[in-house]
Amino acid sequence: MLTTSALLLSVFTISALGADEDYTVDTYPNPKKGSYKECNLRSAGLVCDPYETLSESERYRINTQLVTFVTKTEVNNNKDFCSKKGTDAMFVIINKGSQDFADGLRQHWSNIDTQCGRFGLLVLSLDDRSVYGSFDERSPINMIQLQAIIATEDNHIKTGLYTTAITNILKEVADSMTPQNPGTTIKPQTTTKSSQIQFSVFSIILASVFTYFL
Hints:
It is built from eight helices and four strands. It has helices at 2-20, 56-72, 81-84, 99-108, 143-152, 154-158, 162-176, 192-213; strands spanning 47-48, 88-94, 119-125, 130-135.
């Protein structure tokens, strides 16, 4: 009986420890490679949701926006390939995340773009309901600006509207890299010359009439 109790206690202890375990930088599944099923995707993609926090439609909505994010962040007026290339980005979810985890995972997956370094991550931490961003220093994504954009979505993140928050963040980051067309000032037309001509014609007519009656 004692042996059975000890065995059951060991099983419960192992289960409890397993429940508290979370992914590490080395063990987190990469959705672009063979671990996409663990990320709850049907095929290789850019989103990893191992706990099924989002619905399938939400995962693919974010995935689609990440695919278009590359083209939206291209800089077409640059001739150099790396300067012109858009930025690849991925979105992952973890129970307990941090800025260190985001930076570490990005570096661990840095082979996604070794040539140009145009790669970054958005990490959703469920424990503190926070989003951490990490982009390669060679990327044109400004980290201070990114953090400011993430802060504007804090209410959506804290209330669990993760898909809304992430799609808004991606849109704002892409828009911030699109140069705005400068406004053109239309010079007001002047009627001075026209007025002078009209006055001259009127003067000639008046002089002719005056001469006729004389």
